[in-house]
Amino acid sequence: MLEKNIRIASDAEIVDEAIISRRSVRAFLPDMVDDDTIRAILAVAARAPSGTNMQPWRVYVTKGEVKQRISDAILNSGIRAEKAEWDEYRYYPDQFFEPYLTRRRANGFGLYGALGIGRREVDKMRAQHDRNFIFFDAPVGMIFTIDRRLNQGSWIDYGMFLQNIMVAARGRGLHTCPQAAFAPYHRQIRPVLDIPEEEIVVCGMALGYEDTSKPENEFRTDRAPIEDWVRFAE
User: Keywords, A to Z (predicted)?
Assistant: First the structure.
């Protein structure tokens, strides 16, 4: 029994570390990630649960010239992020309210503060946001889609799949950044990857090795204490 408990504690520590160390990295090294590693991450991530095992995810893995074409299509579109139309699905509410407004502001101020960008330096903020569209220099950029005929339950399943990718990446010494910012640019992305019209672009994700020299990667978000959002009922 003692050996079993030690093994359980060790396994929990490994899993917890992968989860806790996962964060949105916004500057990557150019070091390439081999296809076998990417396949292994996606294969284990696909063990995510889905209603009646429908497995609603579809993934486009891009590198090199194709990834660059996605970046060019978006950045040359002339559509600023604040003007981009969320016409396939809505990620955020039309108007933020508490406690979400405060959390959102703290996230933005914290990131831009780490970069030395002041609250009125709009051009610098825009330039930093545009780095989304080059996948923050990551060597691998993934675009995720879902069949538009599926309902909300499949989107919940999709979130578990995405989390599995990010945790599996940590287990291999890699980092990620999930990026909803790609969703409004589906018209620019679709022809590059030949995405069928029945698929909605859910998000993108950068994958690679963290550049620890960059100040934006020193930024850490906090989490509300468990007492704020959990109730135990007996």
Answer: Oxidoreductase
- Alpha-carbon distances, residue 72 vs 60, 69, 89, 103, 185 (angstroms): 17, 5, 23, 32, 12
Residue type, 234: E
The closest alpha carbon to 186, from 202, 197, 201, belongs to 201
The answer to whether 29 and 221 are in contact (CB under 8 A) is no
27's tokens: 């500057």
Give tens-digit pLDDT for 108-123.
999 999 999 999 999 9
β-pairing verdict for 58-62 and 140-147: antiparallel
Distance CA 34, CA 28 (A): 15
Instruction: Report the amino acid identity of residue 47.
Output: R
| Global confidence as pTM | 0.95
Burial (CB < 10 A; 0-12, 13-18, 19+), residue 151, is exposed
